[in-house]
């Protein structure tokens, strides 16, 4: 717009000079043409930017809360998103149903899908509530990321508060399953914090926003080691949230490829709002009671 104004002022100055020297020119024709050209340019730019925004929202719409998708759309182009991976500290959360593969073999297909759908919808909504990003669904397993694609200073604590809700909402979810005459389920959670490579991988037609690295693999192993309605975390996650979380060290669990002597794992036992707040026990017992009542 500034350039258009400069061109118009220059044109009118030239018209005045030509008029003073006996030359006649139309004072409106060129300004109208310039204004129309500028309007067309602005319109085309808006269309292109809107197209970029829609592409970004389409890529991230299924992974993150709509608020984060709109924030990304306003700040990044499609080329920036698909062309760059980056290494940064992430907090990874894995959650999956205990023993569901064996249980599903004895169920009707429609019941398997109904159980998984109820579970995935509840867990996904809670992850979005705590500003997590859905990396992927693998059967009944959900993989979630914090601190990507947008930076989150307290990403480890956000993941832990999310994990609390994942367990705390178990009685409500189990009640909904019972109301539909579906069997009860239980799930475990693993969380790990550390460096990983994150970005969109694939083609422009089919992209997957995901994270790669040892931090991710270790979080998956924590999830596998977690008992029903418990949360297992690693030392880096505990260090980042030590003021807000109480833990019990998990003894005698050997992770494949990890040293039991140097690699510490913890079971979360309580959490609190801030350093002066009372401790709130993790709701494992209430979740197990609801599960056991429906198993009878």
What does this structure look like?
The structure is a single chain. It contains 11 helices and 9 strands. It has 296 residues and is an alpha+beta fold. The radius of gyration is 28 Å and the shape is globular. It has helices at residues 2-20, 29-60, 66-75, 78-83, 100-104, 109-129, 155-168, 170-179, 214-225, 235-240, 284-295, and strands at residues 86-97, 133-138, 141-146, 187-202, 207-212, 231-234, 245-249, 265-271, 280-281. The mean pLDDT is 81. Strand 8 (265-271) and strand 9 form a beta hairpin. The protein folds into 2 domains: 2-57, no CATH class; 86-295, 2-Layer Sandwich (Alpha-Beta Plaits), CATH 3.30.70.1230. Strands 1, 2, 3, 4, 5, 6, 7, 8 and 9 form a 9-stranded mixed sheet that branches.
List strands and helices in order, with pairings.
Blueprint: H1 2-20, H2 29-60, H3 66-75, H4 78-83, E1 86-97, H5 100-104, H6 109-129, E2 133-138, E3 141-146, H7 155-168, H8 170-179, E4 187-202, E5 207-212, H9 214-225, E6 231-234, H10 235-240, E7 245-249, E8 265-271, E9 280-281, H11 284-295
Parallel strand pairs: 4-6
Antiparallel strand pairs: 1-3, 1-4, 2-3, 4-5, 6-8, 7-8, 8-9
What is the overall number of helices? 11
Q: How many strands?
A: 9
The helix fraction, in percent, is 40-55%
Largest sheet geometry: 9 strands, mixed
C-alpha geometry: globular
**CATH class call of the largest domain:** Alpha Beta
Q: What portion of the residues fall into strands of 2 or more residues?
A: 15-25%
What is the CATH homology-level superfamily of the largest domain? Nucleotide cyclase, GGDEF domain
N-to-C order of helices and strands: HHHHEHHEEHHEEHEHEEEH
Task: Examine the secondary-structure arrangement and name the CATH architecture of the largest domain.
Answer: 2-Layer Sandwich
Query: In angstroms, what separates the terminal alpha carbons?
Result: 73 Å
Average per-residue pLDDT, rounded, comes to 81
Given the helix and strand composition, which structural class is it?
alpha+beta
């Amino acid at each position: 717009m500034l350039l258009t104004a400069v061109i118009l002022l220059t044109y009118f100055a030239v018209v005045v000079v030509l008029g003073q020297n006996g030359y006649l020119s139309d004072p409106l024709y060129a300004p109208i043409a310039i204004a129309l050209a500028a309007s067309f340019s602005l319109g085309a730019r808006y269309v292109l930017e809107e197209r970029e925004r829609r592409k970004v929202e389409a890529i991230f719409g299924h992974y993150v809360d709509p608020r984060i998708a709109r924030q990304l759309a306003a700040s990044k182009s499609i080329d920036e998103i698909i062309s760059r991976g980056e290494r940064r500290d992430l907090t990874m959360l894995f959650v999956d149903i205990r023993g569901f593969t064996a249980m599903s073999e004895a169920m009707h297909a429609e019941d398997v899908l109904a159980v998984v759908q109820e579970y995935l919808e509840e867990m996904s909504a809670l992850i979005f509530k705590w500003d997590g990003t859905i990396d992927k669904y693998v059967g009944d397993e959900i993989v979630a990321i914090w601190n990507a694609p947008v930076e989150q200073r307290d990403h480890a604590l956000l993941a832990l508060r999310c994990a609390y809700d994942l367990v705390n909402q178990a009685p409500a979810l189990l009640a909904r399953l019972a109301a539909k005459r579906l069997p009860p389920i239980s799930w475990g959670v693993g969380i790990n914090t550390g460096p990983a490579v994150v970005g969109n991988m694939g083609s422009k037609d089919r992209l997957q926003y995901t994270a790669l690295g040892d931090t991710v693999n270790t979080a998956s192993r924590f999830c596998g080691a977690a008992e029903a309605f418990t949360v297992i975390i690693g030392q880096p996650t505990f260090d980042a949230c030590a003021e807000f979380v109480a833990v019990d060290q998990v003894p005698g669990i050997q992770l494949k490829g990890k040293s039991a002597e140097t690699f510490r794992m913890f079971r979360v036992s309580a959490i609190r709002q801030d350093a002066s707040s009372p401790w709130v026990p993790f709701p494992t017992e209430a979740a197990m009671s609801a599960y056991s009542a429906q198993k009878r």
